[in-house]
Amino acid sequence: MELFVLVGCFLLLLVMGFPIAFNMILSSSMYLLVGGYPQLLVVQRMFEGMNGFSLLSVPFFVLTGQFLLKGHLLEALIDFVNAFIGHVRGALALVTVGTCLFMGAIVGLALASV
Predict the structure, then answer these.
(1) What is the pLDDT of residue 12?
(2) Does residue 89 surpass a pLDDT of 90?
(3) Higher per-residue pLDDT: 34 or 52
(4) Which of 22, 60, 76, 103 is the most buried (most CB within 10 A)?
(5) d(CA 69, CA 82)
(6) Which residues contact 28 (CB under 8 A, 6 or more apart)?
(7) Residue 81 in contact with residue 98, Cβ under 8 Å?
(8) pLDDT of residue 44
């Protein structure tokens, strides 16, 4: 029953032209109201979801991106990668992947270098 309310509310609001963010908020709110979940449990679960250590890195990741953008270091990195592989066919895609590889190595993302 709750799943039908969630999907139905989501599709109805989508057809009505609501923005996706408000659509998801309203649909999940209707799901919680129809499901009969205790309000204290909902608030507690929301806090537990946001209390994770992994979410601490998101503002620093955005801040690093702003430093690279405003300091024109990102353009220098693109030019550096373009100097190596800019002469081959499909260079735009290769330069993009190469720049992302270097960016991942700069910010310490281990999976970006694999």
Answers:
(1) 92
(2) yes
(3) 34
(4) 103
(5) 17
(6) 6
(7) yes
(8) 87
Percent of the chain with pLDDT over 90: 32
The tally of CA atoms less than 13 A away on the side-chain side of residue 54 is 3
Q: Is-contact 27 35, C-beta < 8 A?
A: no
Give pTM, 2 decimals: 0.49
Cβ pair 86, 107 in contact under 8 A: no
- How distant, in Å, are the alpha carbons of 52, 75, 96, 106, 107 from that of 100? 26, 12, 6, 10, 11
Q: Give the distance, in angstroms, between the CA of residue 100 and the centroid of all CA atoms in the same chain.
A: 16
As a whole number of angstroms, the distance between CA 95 and CA 110 comes to 20
Contacts of 103 (CB under 8 A, 6+ apart): 68, 74, 77, 112
Q: For the chain, give every domain's residue range.
A: 2-51, 56-113
pLDDT of 94: 94
